[in-house]
Amino acid sequence: MAIPELKTVDIGQGRVISYREAGTGVPVVILHGLGGRSESWVPQYEALSNKYRVIGWDAPGYNESSEMLEQEPMIQDYGRIAKCFVDAMALDRFHLVGHSVGTCISAYLHKAHPEQLISLTLAEAVIGNGSDTKESQDAAIAARKKDFEDLGPVEVAKKKTPNSLSPNADLAAIQAAIAFASKVKVDGHLKLAAALIRCNIFDFITPLACPAMIIAGSDDRSAPPEFVKKIAESYHGINHQVIDGIGHQIAFEKPEKFINLLNEHLGAAS
User: Fold this and answer.
1) Residue 258 confidence (pLDDT) above 90
2) Closest CA to 125 of 147, 137, 110
3) Are the CB atoms for 152 and 144 separated by under 8 Å?
4) Residue 81 domain-assigned?
5) Is 2 domain-assigned?
6) Whole-model pTM?
7) DSSP letter for each residue of 190-226
8) What is the CATH number of the domain that holds 37?
9) What percent of the chain has pLDDT over 90?
10) Cβ atoms within 10 A of the Cβ of 84, count?
């Protein structure tokens, strides 16, 4: 399947969100991670579009999406933009899938607008550094910014991306992930990264209002399985799954495993 066309929708105040979509039917909205974009999900568009309208957004500052207006936006601010996006797309109810930092935004939406979710999927959920001291958070934000200033996005991708995959990832997956990450828009990336560093996902966890699934990668060093387990234990009744042999790049490593889990979960919740 070719990458679906990049589209934009006006969300008000002169701002737009870019997105890609495939298929018709019940909507499935996918919120990408820090290193992702709407084109991260080509296997999911292809596999799920025979049953669902699969919509992958671009977070503010990614692809053609307008930058955040705030100088230091928080995850809640991204969540409010996500709400504007689904409203602009006229999505009354939908399945919500978040990956990495997208799980934090998804947890916020589940807390703030539970009535709109048919199901919730948190893939390789991250906690954030919100429980750290402000000094520690500031240092982490400054270090990430310095990396991009000193090295540029291509070299940062070469330096950082291999560690986000399983140590056993094949060369093709590593090369694809590096090539993808090297095309990041730095300003948008840094704002979303800072929001993640300030975030604590536990601030958004509330009793489940819909069927929910959380997925860990057995070799994930960004969202270690034991951390994902802590999140799972806070969502009573969540379906907790572990995919063996993947790191933090579920879109590049074993997409077929992710698709199988999604198909089962979405089908059961519909």
Assistant:
1) yes
2) 110
3) no
4) yes
5) no
6) 0.97
7) HHHHHHHHH--GGGG----SS-EEEEEETT-SSS-HH
8) 3.40.50.1820
9) 94
10) 17
